[in-house]
Amino acid sequence: MLRNEEHIILNYTRRFCRLALLIGWAGFVVSTAEAQEMRADSERHDCESLLHLDNLTITYAGIRETTENVSYCYIKGILPPAIQFHVQLPFPRSWNSRFLKWGDGGKDGDLDFADHRVDEGYAVANSNTGHDNGAEPGSSFGYDNRQSEIDFGYRAVHLTTMAAKTVIRQYYGVAPEYSYFEGCSTGGRQGLMEAQRYPDDFDGIVAGAPANHYQEMNAVRVWLLQRMLRDDGTAALASDRDGDGRFDSVRKLEILADVVSMRCDGIDGVVDGVIDDPTRCDFDPLRDLAAYRCRDGADTEDCFTASQTETIRDFYAGPRDRIGEPIYAGKPIGSELQWANLFIPYSGNNFFPSAVRLGGDHLNYLFYDTDPGVTVSNLLDLSIEPSKDSIPPEWAWWEFDIGDVREGKGDIMKAITDATDPDLSRFLNQRHGKLIIYHGWADALVVPQPTLQYYRDVVAATFNGDTTMARERARLFMVPGMGHCRGGAGPDTWDRLAPLVEWVEQNVAPDALLATHLTDGVVDNERPICAFPEQAVYTGPVGGADQQENWTADNFSCRTVP
User: Is 482 within a domain?
Assistant: First the structure.
């Protein structure tokens, strides 16, 4: 038993130890806080010092945060004459030694962020491709401005890539170990353009839904509008339900989609609302819509007139030139519900379908070798007489002749914007780069058939037709049921970049992409997206193909389908 004085001594000792610990902890906290502040000051200083880079015009350098509140170094700059670019630089402690050029969409004209890739440690760059869509909306930046057209076509992506690599070397003290490109639509076109023109820029490229047949694609959008609005709009796939003279219903498209699904969905052995390969379906509007023909001259939302059936055939077939040769592929079977907002003027899109926004003024500024004139004040007011005497003169999309595509009238612009050269020897064989192309089978905006043909052309031109050899460098993934870049009835969600990184850095080629479809954030369909020419075939429980609980990746295998 301790004596009283021993208790006192022990208590004092305990108090002293506690006090010492508290003092030590306080000192640690203070020193940690000071260290964090010093690190923040250093990071800010290192970032802001990029304002003074030699041979680059940097207009801003400072710290900002991603949407996930991750701080990074952000810089903006200008490349003559009008290319604005920016680079998102993770702090050195977070950098994964990789550079990513982020692709663009539409006509671009702004700076796109890829915060999620910065969160993953990538140094990311993007540009406005040489124009400001606020000052020059749509395609108007190209009016009588060849330099702006060239910048948009290919120059801006390459120069931004070079500038970003310079910034990276300065900021981190070393060049990136690996360089990647990721983009879809216009970004997909940019990726293929890089592989064709600048094969040394990247180690690997992901090109989704590449709009590489750029001029034909935009010409067809206008041709479809011309076909639908012929004969005072009687060929349009919309109805005036309430009789006020305005199209307010696209019920016809819903009927068409239902009939297509009934005929084509089960061809792949699974009835899940997804048409795996539209080319295997022989849907014929004249035959398969016979039960829905309008009778006795009526035109209601529940039937199709002869001219509307012809319009549907136009959508599927695409235009032909004066000697009957195809100009560009038609819309894929299974894409019907997308036609409403893209091509059909009706109240649901304020009579301004997005194809008008994307392609309506394209022909004024980015198609012909010499621009024919500026757009009229109202793109859908066919009563307007374009003024040819104004300065500059006006020119309207309904004046366009689809035959001009084959008659060489837009060849200069094709050379600037189209990324259709199938010889990728410099990138795939000499550089040993890797290429992943993907495209949704239900994409109505940038149709998938030309992408499939382009890949076949690459195999022929780059690998002498050897598909096995081609798959060592380049792989194509046709995604069942997916719309433009994402969306649609089929599985459309996967990490676009990760399979490419694994292929480049570990030499593990992706045989399939594990994709999911989500409804309200819940996965309701999952399957492998197989590398062409294979397709996912149901191999799960016998008799369970049409049961949703069996739509999981384990129940599908990649096989060549005859």
Answer: yes
